[in-house]
Amino acid sequence: MDFDLVVRNGTVVTASDIWEGCDIGVKDGTIIAVGPRLPAKPGVEEIDAEGAFVTPGGVDCHVHLSQVYEAGVDNIDKSVATDGLIPDRENYVADTYDTGTRSAVAGGTTTVVTFASQFKKDESIIPVIEDYHKLAKDQSYCDYAFHVIITNPTETIVEKEFPRMVDEYGITSVKLYMTYKPMRLRDYQILDVMYSARKLGITTMVHAENTDIIDWMTEHLEKKLMTHPHHHGTSRPPIVEAEATNRVISLAELMDTPILLVHISSAHATKHIREAQTRLLPIYGETCPQYLFLLADAMRKGDFEGAKCVCSPPLREDKADQDAIWAGIKNGTFTIVSSDHAPNKFNHPNGKQRGLQHGNLPYGKFRYIPNGLPGVETRVPLLFSGGVLSGRISPQKFVEVTSTNAAKLYGLKKKGAIGPGFDADIVIWYPQESFQPFNLTNEMLHHAIDYTPFEGLEFKNWPRYTIIRGKVVFSHGEVVGKMGYGQFIRRGKSLLPGPRDIWLSEWRP
Ligand code: URP
Ligand code: ZN
Ligand code: ZN
């Protein structure tokens, strides 16, 4: 057979099966054959998997890169933003497309879906999309696509620009925020977005937290000088996420449109999603490694170190929340596990240190700490090591939630599986018996961030090779791919169930 790459002797895993002693034949970047002892002509490149696990490349659909409108703080430093483009890479506090996608491939992720964020409240989304194309073009190590963050759904945007976003730009999902002052939408505005999304087959991602509870709690905690980083969690108990989750599920049911609840952190919100799914509503759930592997005590570290783990929704106090999220992965409540890679440097005045700049409290004020954690590189290895190798989930479930379901949910038709016709995006792991477990340090990672929230965690394996469209881009600890190899992917509509044409009243769109 006419291959240009053959991966030999792998334990190949898909979302449904495991084949031992299996080869993968690749031609022109596409998988064309899967099976034992594939015949190849002399001179064809071969990689011996040595019996190790071989899994589809990770698809991470929640990655913030080069995003100028950072979430979580009211005091946005607009000097870092110039017309949506980043002027000064050296002084930028987050990851750009080059550093973020370099980090992605080093952790076995082959496709990222990042956010093009409407920056000024009344701004057309078309120049925003164009700007993000400029930021990403020739900069990416892995394949990429965009969601659009909508902070002001004007009639022009939802009626005229949404159809262009889908047809001209191949973008079939939007993200909405129910919290964060500069970004949050009222329920009325959410319905405006959902109405148009339903017509166009757009998937709506929702950051569900009750903004008024957060504002009220923050004000009242400040009066009591309860402003340490861990009080970020105090201001947002699980009910904050659960109420907003339940509310937005109701809006989606009214509008008969699919939504994805992003970065779910608590048992209570998980229960609402599960209950909606049991009623066969097209409600999807996403969680992230930080809610599986970290708890709120990480925000209690001294010397302001707790700020490193400030994200929204917050890390939870109660291990029961963590257990419920693991259970939700196993029972299918969570469709995907994404990183929510939303990094801010720790030792930078515009990074996490912003939380120390207001007033003279030695432990700062949590409301000024930019929200978010880095995690694009650690997501796949954490789920493999702490999920599969620790016996919590099966290898097939790992593939389903880190790759296959993400590709299906977001219309990435050629991604997320090992099978004929799919892009040859492949991760080859180390044979388990030859791998020396290690404890992670930030120096091992490839992002531009000065810390990892997973410092010190033990990893029992790590991707040995990452392959994108048949090219090795990461091998034995080194990024060998080229910046600019990553391609923009126009996406189709979701391949998962959508509207059901079931209505709550005689009203129809
Ligand atoms: O704290 C978080 N998650 N920051 C990133 C922005 C978002 O809400 O996804
Ligand atoms: Zn969010
Ligand atoms: Zn996010």
Automatic annotation (TrEMBL):
It is an enzyme of class 3 (hydrolase). One of its GO terms (cellular component) is cytoplasm. It catalyses: 5,6-dihydrouracil + H2O = 3-(carbamoylamino)propanoate + H(+). Residues 53-473 form the Amidohydrolase-related domain. One of its GO terms (molecular function) is metal ion binding. Gene3D superfamilies: Metal-dependent hydrolases (3.20.20.140), Urease, subunit C, domain 1 (2.30.40.10). This is dihydropyrimidinase. It comes from Hydnomerulius pinastri MD-312.
